[in-house]
Structures are given as C-alpha cells and as structure tokens.
Amino acid sequence: MKLTRIIEHCKPKDIIGNADIEILKLEIDSRKVEKGTAFVAIRGTQVNGHDYIAKAIEQGASAVICEQLPDKLVQNVTYLRYDNTEDAVGSLATEFYGNPTKRIKLIGVTGTNGKTTIATTLYNIVRHMGIKAGLCSTVCNYIDGKPYPTECTTPDPITLNRLLGEMADAGCEYAFMEVSSHSVTQKRIGGLTFAGGLFTNLTRDHLDYHKTFENYRDAKKGFFDMLPKDAFAITNADDRNGMVMTQNTKATVKTYSMRGIADFRAKVLEESFDGMNLLFDNTEVFVQFVGRFNVQNLLAVYGTLRMIGINKQDALVELSAMKPVNGRFETIRSNNGVTAIIDYAHTPDAIANVLSTINEVLQGKGQCWTVCGAGGNRDKGKRPLMAQEAVKQSDHVIITSDNPRFENPQDIINDMLAGLTPEDMKKTISIVDRREAIRTACMMASPGDAILVAGKGHEDYQIIQGVKHHFDDHEIIREAFGLV
C-alpha cells in the first residue's frame, strides 16, 4: 500500500522524503523489519523504539514513523513525525490492513476476572451454530478454528489489525477479544471499531503498572467511553463498579445480575463438581460450568447472544452444550474419589470465588486443600492478600512457586506468608518446588476431599530466572493420581 494512503486519515506533523512509496509491512519490532517496511518507533514502558531506528534502517526500512527525528537522516528513507506515535499507530495499522472492523463485528470483553471464559465461550457457541468467528485471547488466538499462538492478552495494534484483517478475509462474521487494561492505556485498540463491549468485574490487579486502583478502573472505563452509538455495552450490575463503567458510554447499555433487577438474570438451583442447574430468565437449564462466578460469566455470554440476535431458546441450548475453558475450574478425579480443580485464579478475589464454590459443593463433607503461589515481577501488594484468601477458606494450604520470572521464588513465598497470622500458619506449609507441592497435596488428600491448584490454569510453562521451562499442572496431577 502507498504510504500516502496509510497516513491519509492520520496526518503526521512533518514528512521528510518521498511519501509516494510502496509499503509492504508495518512493524514496531525492529527485529522483524525487512525491505519495504515502515518502522514505527514507540516509547514503550520497557524499551524506547527510537533507540532502534538505525537498526531498522540497516534491515531495510523504507520509512520511519517517529516522535523525534534522528540526528542523522539517511537518504532514500522517508521520515514521518507525530507528536505521539503510540496514539497514531492504531490508526495507521487499521488503514494498512483495510479497516478490518468495518468488515467484521468485534466484541470486546474487559474486567479483572472472567475475560477468557466469556470470550472463548462466545467464540465456541457461534462456531457451533455454524457462524464463522475469530478469537483473540490470553490462551490462544483463533481464526475460524485455526490456532495462532499468543504472547499477551491483547496484542500490539499492528499484530491485532493483521489478525482481525485475516479473520475478515477468512469470512468471519464475529471476532471476540479480551481487552486488557494495558491495551487501553497503551492505545493497542486505537483505530478499532467495536460492535459491543462487556464488563465482568473489577478487583485488585496490575497495580505494579497502574499504580492506583483508580487508574486501573479508569483504564477499563476508557474502553466503554470509546464505544460508538450503534454498539452495545453489557455490564455486571452486581459489581460496585459495573455502572461506573458505562456512565459515559454512547452505546446501548444492558445489565446482568444474580441479585437484583437487570436485563439478564439467573440464580443457582443446584450445583456439583459436574455442573449446575440454573434458572435463567425463568427457564431451567443445566450447564457444565461450576461456581457462582461462572453464572455471572454465562450471563454475560447469554446477554451477548441475545444482543447479536440469537433467540432465548437457542442461546440456552448452546449454553448447556458448552464445556469449561481449559484451566478455568477444570476438574480431574482420582480413582479413590479426590477431586483436583485447576484454575487460573491469580488475584485475591479470584481465589476467594473459586474456594467459595468448592466449599459450597463440598458442604463440609470433605476437606479443601489449596496449592497456590504468585507471579514474579508483578504487583507485590496482592501476594499477602492471596495467601489470606487461601487460608480463610481452606483446611490446608501449600504456598509454592507460580512463575517466578526474574525473582527469587522463596522471596515471593515470604511475601505471601507475611500476610498470615501464627494461627493461619498452623494449617500452612511452603514448598518452593511447584511439582512437589502439587504431589504433596495429592498424596495427603483423602477420598471426598478437593484440591485447588491455582494460578497457572492453561499455562504449560514456568519462567525461572527468565528461562521458560515446560510445566503443566494437568500432567503433574494426573501423574500423582496414577492416571497416566
């Protein structure tokens, strides 16, 4: 595409050189630059792209899009200067990839917990109904069934527009996407047009990045502020921030609730580790999901299905056919009647919700064991709170490693243990090796007990001192249960 066309709707402050050149690709990563690339230099939180302009030109960049021109300009390279390249890159990428959200209905899901379950379940349902769809999630990206690995919840704007463009080219009618708070503040979703937005809940997370809970909340709210008038916004009326999210949106607002008056309502009639009987808008339905937090997730799914034109009966039939998402309250049973639950819960609120569900199902007839840790190089303030929530609703707790990343695993464990009282410590032990921690719980649990293995969910790796090692909670549990 001609550079003049790419910048047609996002004019730069200055153009130095020939803008009437052919651009073959856009990149913000200098390592991926080839001949004919327009390299966009962004001042990131970890790396400043302006430091890599020379390298990008060495690798064949035809154009450089930046905020500050380099001291030395290279002949036959076109330079475009913007006040803020982070603001501009979304619009430039949208133009380059043919404005994909004009050709596909994009629905975003934001909130602290539940994003993956909601987005993935929506994707699975519409495809089960014969509608082509794409998914952009923490676990994996999909284009009508074909997987594309993912490295973060919401990709950079160039990767995202390329992915959405490929979805549109493949004939997808819908795309369902997790929208992280980082993606809003870093303008990764800039230039995209959403047909709908969903809010799940808001609890403490990512304060290492946002610094305050208010900043984190406002980042989520910013997503709803950008929704157009012809979009819909579905929010959780049971969350105290639910109506805050939509107070300035132009979109049509709908609510869901388990407690009060709302557009979409549900309540639990009966639950077990196999699923729940629910009353959904006055109709009884059995679902293979467990937990009240999942009822709220399914309400968001149901509301979205209704808003995109699927009738009540078909929506409920589809909900009853769906299975839980990988690593989200996923159960494995031993031959002697111990139930292990694998869940991605990695915030205090998520751990509290999952443990509450486990105890509701156990009804005091078995003991609850919890194996959990906290990620390294992330919000340290939530570590003692996670340990407190684990101890509060468990009979036995094993604090262990999660993804230490570049931190000492024992230091992370110590941060968690610091939140516990001497009384709490009577039912708590720590085992640094996650494999041994899981095995210990599996060996010590009795028939009828439940073991929560929290924190990693779908992830099949551990990062230790920056090195990625294969590690899958599912495999360790099956091995400990003698199921392999």
Describe the structure.
The chain is α/β, with parallel strands linked by helices and 484 residues long. The chain is globular, with a radius of gyration of 24 Å. It is built from 17 helices and 24 strands. The protein folds into three domains: 3-94, MurE/MurF, N-terminal domain (Udp-n-acetylmuramoylalanyl-d-glutamate--2,6- Diaminopimelate Ligase, Chain: A, domain 1), CATH 3.40.1390.10; 100-321, Mur-like, catalytic domain (UDP-N-acetylmuramoyl-L-alanine:D-glutamate ligase, 3-Layer(aba) Sandwich), CATH 3.40.1190.10; 330-480, Mur ligase, C-terminal domain (Protein-Tyrosine Phosphatase, Chain A, Alpha-Beta Complex), CATH 3.90.190. Helix content is 33%, strand content 22%. It starts with a helix and ends with a helix. The model has no long low-confidence stretch (mean pLDDT 93). A hairpin with a 2-residue loop joins strand 14 (264-272) and strand 15.
SSE layout and pairing:
Blueprint: H1 3-6, E1 14-16, E2 25-27, E3 37-40, H2 53-58, E4 63-66, E5 78-81, H3 85-96, E6 105-110, H4 115-128, E7 133-136, E8 141-143, E9 146-148, H5 157-169, E10 174-178, H6 181-185, E11 196-199, H7 207-210, H8 213-225, E12 232-236, H9 242-245, E13 252-257, E14 264-272, E15 275-280, E16 283-287, H10 292-307, H11 312-321, E17 330-333, E18 339-343, H12 348-362, E19 368-372, H13 383-392, E20 396-399, H14 409-417, H15 422-425, E21 428-430, H16 434-444, E22 450-454, E23 461-464, E24 467-470, H17 473-480
Parallel strand pairs: 2-3, 3-4, 4-5, 6-10, 6-11, 7-10, 11-12, 12-13, 13-14, 18-22, 19-20, 19-22, 20-21
Antiparallel strand pairs: 1-5, 7-8, 8-9, 14-15, 15-16, 17-18, 23-24
